[in-house]
Amino acid sequence: MKVDLGDLNAFLAVARAGGFRDGARVSGGSASGLSDAVRRLEAQLGVRLLNRTTRSVLPTEAGQGLLDRLSPALTEVEAALDFASGFRDRPAGTLKLNVPVSAARLVLPRIIPGFLAAYPDIRLEIMTDESFVDVIAAGCDAGIRYDERLEQDMIALPIGPRIQRFASAASSAYLDRRGRPEHPRDLLVHDCIRGRFASGALIVWEFEKDGEVVKVDPNGPLMVQPGGGSDLAVDAAIAGTGIISLFEDWLRPYFESGVLEPVLKPWWVQFSGPFLYYPGRRLVPAPLRAFIDYIKENGTWD
After folding, report:
1. Does domain 5-88 have CATH number 3.40.630.30?
2. What is the SS3 assignment for 10?
3. Beta strand residue intervals within the chain, DSSP E
Protein backbone atom coordinates (compact mmCIF):
# COMPACT_ATOMS: atom_id res chain seq x y z
CA MET A 1 0.00 0.00 0.00
CA LYS A 2 1.34 3.40 -0.99
CA VAL A 3 0.75 6.02 1.71
CA ASP A 4 1.70 9.70 1.66
CA LEU A 5 4.64 10.31 4.02
CA GLY A 6 3.20 13.72 4.90
CA ASP A 7 -0.02 12.13 6.14
CA LEU A 8 1.96 9.73 8.32
CA ASN A 9 3.93 12.61 9.79
CA ALA A 10 0.67 14.46 10.47
CA PHE A 11 -0.70 11.46 12.34
CA LEU A 12 2.48 11.19 14.40
CA ALA A 13 2.42 14.88 15.29
CA VAL A 14 -1.20 14.74 16.51
CA ALA A 15 -0.85 11.42 18.36
CA ARG A 16 2.31 12.49 20.16
CA ALA A 17 0.96 15.94 21.08
CA GLY A 18 -2.47 14.65 22.09
CA GLY A 19 -4.37 17.15 19.98
CA PHE A 20 -4.58 18.91 16.66
CA ARG A 21 -3.72 22.41 17.95
CA ASP A 22 -0.71 21.19 19.93
CA GLY A 23 0.36 19.01 17.00
CA ALA A 24 0.15 22.03 14.68
CA ARG A 25 2.24 24.12 17.06
CA VAL A 26 4.96 21.46 17.26
CA SER A 27 4.99 20.62 13.56
CA GLY A 28 4.61 24.16 12.25
CA GLY A 29 1.48 23.31 10.27
CA SER A 30 -2.18 24.14 10.79
CA ALA A 31 -4.73 22.24 12.86
CA SER A 32 -7.11 21.98 9.92
CA GLY A 33 -4.31 20.69 7.67
CA LEU A 34 -3.40 17.99 10.20
CA SER A 35 -7.06 17.02 10.56
CA ASP A 36 -7.43 16.63 6.78
CA ALA A 37 -4.26 14.54 6.61
CA VAL A 38 -5.38 12.18 9.38
CA ARG A 39 -8.78 11.75 7.73
CA ARG A 40 -7.12 10.89 4.42
CA LEU A 41 -4.91 8.33 6.14
CA GLU A 42 -7.86 6.74 7.99
CA ALA A 43 -9.87 6.56 4.79
CA GLN A 44 -6.99 4.92 2.95
CA LEU A 45 -6.37 2.38 5.71
CA GLY A 46 -10.07 1.80 6.37
CA VAL A 47 -9.71 2.09 10.17
CA ARG A 48 -10.05 4.83 12.77
CA LEU A 49 -6.69 5.84 14.16
CA LEU A 50 -7.69 8.58 16.62
CA ASN A 51 -10.62 8.95 18.98
CA ARG A 52 -11.56 12.62 19.02
CA THR A 53 -13.53 14.34 21.80
CA THR A 54 -13.93 18.00 22.67
CA ARG A 55 -11.32 17.60 25.40
CA SER A 56 -8.80 15.08 24.02
CA VAL A 57 -7.49 13.16 21.05
CA LEU A 58 -6.26 9.63 21.82
CA PRO A 59 -5.03 6.81 19.57
CA THR A 60 -7.31 3.85 19.02
CA GLU A 61 -5.85 0.36 19.37
CA ALA A 62 -5.04 0.43 15.66
CA GLY A 63 -3.64 3.93 16.00
CA GLN A 64 -1.43 2.99 18.96
CA GLY A 65 -0.09 -0.01 17.12
CA LEU A 66 0.70 2.15 14.09
CA LEU A 67 2.33 4.76 16.32
CA ASP A 68 4.53 2.17 18.07
CA ARG A 69 5.77 0.72 14.78
CA LEU A 70 5.94 3.93 12.81
CA SER A 71 8.01 6.01 15.21
CA PRO A 72 11.29 4.03 14.91
CA ALA A 73 10.81 3.65 11.15
CA LEU A 74 10.43 7.40 10.60
CA THR A 75 13.34 8.05 12.94
CA GLU A 76 15.46 5.93 10.58
CA VAL A 77 14.12 7.88 7.59
CA GLU A 78 15.03 11.19 9.25
CA ALA A 79 18.49 9.87 10.07
CA ALA A 80 18.95 8.78 6.44
CA LEU A 81 17.85 12.19 5.16
CA ASP A 82 20.17 13.94 7.63
CA PHE A 83 23.02 11.72 6.41
CA ALA A 84 22.31 12.59 2.77
CA SER A 85 22.01 16.32 3.43
CA GLY A 86 25.28 16.19 5.36
CA PHE A 87 27.06 15.66 2.04
CA ARG A 88 25.97 19.18 1.15
CA ASP A 89 27.77 20.73 4.13
CA ARG A 90 30.68 18.29 4.45
CA PRO A 91 31.85 17.22 1.00
CA ALA A 92 32.30 13.48 1.03
CA GLY A 93 31.82 10.55 -1.29
CA THR A 94 33.15 9.57 -4.70
CA LEU A 95 33.95 11.91 -7.60
CA LYS A 96 34.39 10.25 -11.00
CA LEU A 97 36.10 12.16 -13.82
CA ASN A 98 36.44 11.16 -17.47
CA VAL A 99 39.61 12.71 -18.92
CA PRO A 100 42.00 12.30 -21.86
CA VAL A 101 45.42 10.88 -21.08
CA SER A 102 47.00 14.27 -21.83
CA ALA A 103 44.98 15.86 -19.00
CA ALA A 104 45.83 13.02 -16.62
CA ARG A 105 49.49 13.59 -17.40
CA LEU A 106 49.77 17.36 -17.88
CA VAL A 107 46.92 18.93 -15.88
CA LEU A 108 45.76 16.82 -12.97
CA PRO A 109 49.13 16.21 -11.26
CA ARG A 110 49.24 19.90 -10.30
CA ILE A 111 45.68 19.81 -8.96
CA ILE A 112 44.81 16.44 -7.44
CA PRO A 113 47.23 16.26 -4.47
CA GLY A 114 46.13 19.65 -3.15
CA PHE A 115 42.45 18.89 -3.74
CA LEU A 116 42.56 15.56 -1.90
CA ALA A 117 44.47 17.15 0.96
CA ALA A 118 41.80 19.85 1.23
CA TYR A 119 38.92 17.32 1.08
CA PRO A 120 40.07 14.11 2.79
CA ASP A 121 36.54 12.61 2.77
CA ILE A 122 36.37 12.61 -1.04
CA ARG A 123 37.54 9.63 -3.07
CA LEU A 124 38.56 10.43 -6.64
CA GLU A 125 38.27 8.04 -9.58
CA ILE A 126 39.89 8.96 -12.91
CA MET A 127 38.79 7.24 -16.12
CA THR A 128 41.01 8.01 -19.12
CA ASP A 129 39.33 8.02 -22.52
CA GLU A 130 40.36 9.73 -25.74
CA SER A 131 36.90 9.48 -27.30
CA PHE A 132 34.16 11.98 -26.51
CA VAL A 133 31.69 10.14 -24.30
CA ASP A 134 28.49 11.01 -22.49
CA VAL A 135 29.86 11.49 -18.98
CA ILE A 136 26.55 10.57 -17.36
CA ALA A 137 26.13 7.41 -19.45
CA ALA A 138 29.72 6.48 -18.57
CA GLY A 139 28.88 6.77 -14.87
CA CYS A 140 31.03 9.87 -14.36
CA ASP A 141 30.21 13.18 -12.69
CA ALA A 142 32.29 15.37 -15.00
CA GLY A 143 34.96 15.28 -17.68
CA ILE A 144 37.86 17.23 -19.14
CA ARG A 145 37.91 18.08 -22.85
CA TYR A 146 38.91 20.86 -25.23
CA ASP A 147 36.39 23.45 -26.39
CA GLU A 148 35.88 22.03 -29.87
CA ARG A 149 34.65 18.78 -28.32
CA LEU A 150 32.26 20.20 -25.71
CA GLU A 151 28.51 19.72 -25.93
CA GLN A 152 26.46 22.90 -25.81
CA ASP A 153 24.24 21.79 -22.93
CA MET A 154 27.24 21.35 -20.65
CA ILE A 155 28.75 23.87 -18.26
CA ALA A 156 32.45 24.41 -19.06
CA LEU A 157 35.00 25.65 -16.52
CA PRO A 158 38.62 26.45 -17.50
CA ILE A 159 41.13 24.04 -15.99
CA GLY A 160 44.89 23.77 -16.41
CA PRO A 161 47.05 25.92 -18.71
CA ARG A 162 44.99 28.41 -20.70
CA ILE A 163 47.30 28.37 -23.70
CA GLN A 164 48.95 25.22 -25.04
CA ARG A 165 50.94 24.37 -28.15
CA PHE A 166 51.55 21.35 -30.31
CA ALA A 167 55.27 20.81 -30.75
CA SER A 168 57.13 18.72 -33.28
CA ALA A 169 60.43 17.08 -32.44
CA ALA A 170 62.98 14.48 -33.43
CA SER A 171 66.28 13.17 -32.20
CA SER A 172 69.42 15.01 -33.31
CA ALA A 173 70.69 11.77 -34.84
CA TYR A 174 67.61 11.54 -37.08
CA LEU A 175 67.83 15.20 -38.11
CA ASP A 176 71.55 14.93 -38.82
CA ARG A 177 70.80 11.97 -41.05
CA ARG A 178 67.69 13.26 -42.85
CA GLY A 179 68.01 17.04 -42.61
CA ARG A 180 66.10 19.67 -40.62
CA PRO A 181 62.74 20.78 -42.08
CA GLU A 182 62.43 24.50 -42.74
CA HIS A 183 58.78 24.51 -43.84
CA PRO A 184 55.90 22.20 -42.81
CA ARG A 185 55.67 20.85 -46.38
CA ASP A 186 59.19 19.49 -45.95
CA LEU A 187 57.65 16.90 -43.61
CA LEU A 188 56.18 15.14 -46.63
CA VAL A 189 59.62 13.66 -47.38
CA HIS A 190 60.35 12.72 -43.76
CA ASP A 191 59.45 9.75 -41.59
CA CYS A 192 56.72 10.93 -39.20
CA ILE A 193 55.20 9.16 -36.24
CA ARG A 194 51.45 9.53 -36.66
CA GLY A 195 48.39 9.23 -34.45
CA ARG A 196 44.99 7.71 -35.17
CA PHE A 197 41.97 7.95 -32.87
CA ALA A 198 40.01 4.84 -31.90
CA SER A 199 37.26 6.09 -34.25
CA GLY A 200 39.68 5.66 -37.14
CA ALA A 201 40.23 9.37 -37.71
CA LEU A 202 43.81 10.26 -38.57
CA ILE A 203 45.34 13.29 -36.83
CA VAL A 204 46.31 15.89 -39.41
CA TRP A 205 49.36 18.00 -38.50
CA GLU A 206 48.64 21.72 -38.51
CA PHE A 207 51.12 24.61 -38.44
CA GLU A 208 50.77 28.40 -38.47
CA LYS A 209 53.12 31.36 -38.84
CA ASP A 210 52.38 35.00 -39.64
CA GLY A 211 48.81 34.18 -40.58
CA GLU A 212 49.75 31.32 -42.90
CA VAL A 213 48.12 28.04 -41.92
CA VAL A 214 49.54 24.82 -43.32
CA LYS A 215 48.04 21.35 -42.85
CA VAL A 216 50.07 18.32 -43.82
CA ASP A 217 49.36 14.61 -43.89
CA PRO A 218 52.84 13.04 -43.79
CA ASN A 219 53.75 9.37 -43.94
CA GLY A 220 55.79 7.33 -41.54
CA PRO A 221 56.69 3.88 -40.25
CA LEU A 222 54.72 4.06 -36.98
CA MET A 223 51.09 4.80 -36.13
CA VAL A 224 49.84 4.99 -32.50
CA GLN A 225 46.59 5.77 -30.74
CA PRO A 226 46.79 9.12 -28.92
CA GLY A 227 47.04 8.89 -25.18
CA GLY A 228 47.90 5.28 -24.52
CA GLY A 229 50.39 5.08 -27.39
CA SER A 230 52.00 8.48 -26.92
CA ASP A 231 54.85 7.30 -24.68
CA LEU A 232 55.74 4.65 -27.26
CA ALA A 233 55.79 7.36 -29.93
CA VAL A 234 58.14 9.48 -27.80
CA ASP A 235 60.46 6.53 -27.20
CA ALA A 236 60.52 5.83 -30.94
CA ALA A 237 61.36 9.45 -31.71
CA ILE A 238 64.18 9.39 -29.18
CA ALA A 239 65.49 6.23 -30.83
CA GLY A 240 65.61 8.04 -34.19
CA THR A 241 62.55 6.49 -35.86
CA GLY A 242 61.18 9.82 -37.06
CA ILE A 243 59.50 13.14 -36.22
CA ILE A 244 56.77 13.34 -33.59
CA SER A 245 54.02 15.91 -32.98
CA LEU A 246 52.67 16.16 -29.44
CA PHE A 247 51.81 18.60 -26.66
CA GLU A 248 54.73 20.92 -25.96
CA ASP A 249 54.33 20.32 -22.21
CA TRP A 250 54.62 16.58 -22.78
CA LEU A 251 57.83 16.98 -24.81
CA ARG A 252 59.43 19.74 -22.71
CA PRO A 253 61.41 17.38 -20.39
CA TYR A 254 62.95 15.73 -23.45
CA PHE A 255 63.92 19.11 -24.90
CA GLU A 256 65.53 20.05 -21.60
CA SER A 257 67.47 16.79 -21.40
CA GLY A 258 68.56 17.11 -25.04
CA VAL A 259 67.30 13.72 -26.22
CA LEU A 260 64.85 15.46 -28.55
CA GLU A 261 65.32 18.57 -30.66
CA PRO A 262 62.50 21.02 -31.55
CA VAL A 263 61.42 20.93 -35.20
CA LEU A 264 59.73 23.87 -36.97
CA LYS A 265 59.32 25.74 -33.68
CA PRO A 266 58.28 29.07 -35.31
CA TRP A 267 55.33 27.16 -36.84
CA TRP A 268 53.96 25.57 -33.68
CA VAL A 269 50.21 26.08 -33.34
CA GLN A 270 48.79 27.32 -30.07
CA PHE A 271 45.27 26.61 -28.83
CA SER A 272 43.13 27.25 -25.78
CA GLY A 273 43.56 24.96 -22.80
CA PRO A 274 41.11 22.32 -21.57
CA PHE A 275 37.85 22.68 -19.68
CA LEU A 276 36.16 20.80 -16.90
CA TYR A 277 32.64 20.11 -18.16
CA TYR A 278 29.58 18.83 -16.35
CA PRO A 279 25.78 18.77 -16.82
CA GLY A 280 23.96 22.04 -16.23
CA ARG A 281 21.73 21.03 -13.38
CA ARG A 282 20.65 22.79 -10.21
CA LEU A 283 21.83 20.27 -7.60
CA VAL A 284 25.50 19.47 -8.18
CA PRO A 285 26.83 16.53 -6.09
CA ALA A 286 28.86 17.72 -3.13
CA PRO A 287 32.19 16.16 -4.28
CA LEU A 288 31.85 17.78 -7.70
CA ARG A 289 30.86 21.12 -6.15
CA ALA A 290 33.98 20.98 -3.97
CA PHE A 291 36.12 20.21 -7.04
CA ILE A 292 34.55 23.08 -8.99
CA ASP A 293 35.22 25.50 -6.12
CA TYR A 294 38.81 24.26 -5.85
CA ILE A 295 39.40 24.65 -9.60
CA LYS A 296 38.09 28.21 -9.52
CA GLU A 297 40.72 29.11 -6.93
CA ASN A 298 43.65 26.85 -7.81
CA GLY A 299 43.02 25.07 -11.10
CA THR A 300 44.32 27.33 -13.88
CA TRP A 301 47.71 28.72 -14.81
CA ASP A 302 49.53 30.38 -17.70
Report:
1. no
2. helix
3. 50-52, 57-59, 93-99, 122-128, 142-145, 154-158, 160-161, 163-170, 192-195, 205-209, 212-216, 222-224, 243-247, 261-263, 270-272, 275-279, 300-301
Strand partners, 158: 275
Q: Is the distance from CB of 144 to CB of 275 less than 8 angstroms? A: yes
CATH architecture of 93-160+273-301: 3-Layer(aba) Sandwich (3.40)
Indicate where the chain has its CATH 1.10.10.10 domain(s): 5-88
pLDDT in tens, the chain (302 residues): 678 888 888 998 899 888 888 888 878 889 899 999 999 999 999 999 999 877 788 999 998 999 898 888 877 877 777 677 766 667 888 999 999 999 999 999 999 999 999 999 999 999 998 876 677 777 899 999 987 666 667 899 999 999 999 999 999 999 999 999 999 999 999 999 999 988 888 999 999 999 999 999 999 999 999 998 999 999 999 999 999 999 999 999 999 999 999 999 999 999 999 999 998 766 788 899 999 999 999 999 98
Rounded to whole angstroms, how far apart are CA atoms 198 and 133?
12
Q: Assign domain 163-272 to its CATH architecture.
A: 3-Layer(aba) Sandwich (3.40)
In the chain, list all ranges with CATH 3.40.190.10. Answer: 93-160+273-301
| pTM of the predicted structure, to 2 decimals | 0.72
The DSSP call for residue 148 is: G
